[in-house]
Amino acid sequence: MLTSIKRIFKSGWLNFSRDGSLSIATCFVMIMAISLATSIFFLKDISKFLISTIQEKADISVYFNNTALEEDILNIKEELSKIPEVENISYISKEEVLDEFNQRHKDDSILMESLEEVGGNPFLATLNIRAFTASQYQAVASFFEDPAFEGLIEKVDYYQRKPVIDKIFSLTSEAKKTGIVLAIILAVISALVVFNTIRLAIFNQKEEIEVQRLVGASNWFIRGPFLIQGAISGILATLICFLIVALSCWFFSPKIEFLFPGLNIWNFFTSSFWVIVLIQLAIGIGLGVISSILAVRKYLKI
Amino acid sequence: MIEFQNITKIFPTHSIPTLALDNISFEVKPKEFVSIVGKSGAGKSTLLKIILAEERPTQGKIIFSGQDLSKVKPGNLPQFRRKIGAVFQDYKLFPSKTTYENIAYIMEVIGATDEEIARDVNQVLEIVGLENKAQNFPNELSAGERQRAAIARALIHRPDVILADEPTGNLDPYNTLDIMRLFQKIHNLGATIILATHNKEIINSLGKRVITLEGGRIIRDEEKGRFVL
Questions:
Q1: Which of A75, A196, A296, B55 lies at a 20 to 30 A Cα distance from A120?
Q2: A interface test, pick of B49, B81, B98 with most A CB neighbours within 10 Å
Q3: pLDDT at B225
Q4: What is the pLDDT of residue B47?
Q5: How do strand A126-131 and strand A60-64 relate by DSSP bridges?
Q6: Are residues A227 and A190 located together in one domain of the fold?
């Protein structure tokens, strides 16, 4: 048994090394498939990051009257946070709004003069509220329709922002769906390409397999070397692909971070190192071995 | 040893089914050298394929060493085929294996140890005169050398019977003689040989049992036969 396994491994390695160009072609096609799967894995997280960045921009603001006390506002904030639809609430006091305005427009003399003209602090205390999904903003907005808040609230800007919020959420959910469908299609195509390459390579050895059957080799003794050959192609393709991915991440990371602040793919690569290695190995070896099993099966019927 | 009992083989085709063997019965005894002769399409190759279980008969029974071949399960076919050594007209060597590896493959299949393989393969290479070509690939050998390698592969594991289907079909007269001498040598060492051929000179020089096929039927079966068609 052990001798047979040793011979199967040896024969698989010999076939791989002697097949030369055919082995290289198989490896090359596998590199494509593994790169595709890795990029789908990357895109999944990058798009999650981008979508959440866009969604963060959708929120509603509640402006409070000048007469509203900070204590009342904080109470409302406390109550709001109990609503399950609310993801995040931030309170910005009148003073903070003024500071921020001064900070942002300190070089704009006209605006600063106008502010002086108005005198005092014309800004209103604000609560910025973010919900999990677009449909939940309605529930948050209706919270403020309670007559108890009538004297406190100057304005809820939900109704002006509603079309924009809806648009952002529908776009991001469309993007998610399209991404998933596209990923599935590409994965299926690349698996088929690998399968067909291996099938053609094994088709070349059709007669050899049939002779092996006729001289009394068992199915596993025939199939084994092809599986090993498929696995070696998979491992080699994984190694090359891993190097390509690592180098690309390292090289493009600063450029991508410049375009999308906060998105560091090198960090993502290093933090998901083992997951990427496992995904690539599983796809490389899996595709190689399964394709070989399916392709050889047909010729073992003699 | 091998008994054909009313074997009929019909190949289904798109138009009219082809009758390859028509109610054939005969027996091959141990250590016999039997030649099957006949024109192309007489059913010689089909007969050998049925012994090798490459084809199943449409009707009839074939008994191999007391075992009914139709009852051998597909999973047990490899075990059964190890009792047979097969030589083909087109050699059917493994192109990606060296001569040595081609012959050693059968020993690996039956689970021989590395020492046994090294000893027996070198011995057989010597018998067929290919000791200097052990590390050559089949495409580096001449036609005669390839056939000798194929014969070495067929006899390395000491099978009960050696089947040879037109083994000299692709060879020149010199190599043909060479290969036939080899078969006689193997037979003298105690092997049962079934040889299918349409080479008149070979048959006439052998002076062994000859079964003549025509249109899928046995028309002659003589102990010291000659090539008569």
A1: A75
A2: B81
A3: 73
A4: 92
A5: antiparallel
A6: yes
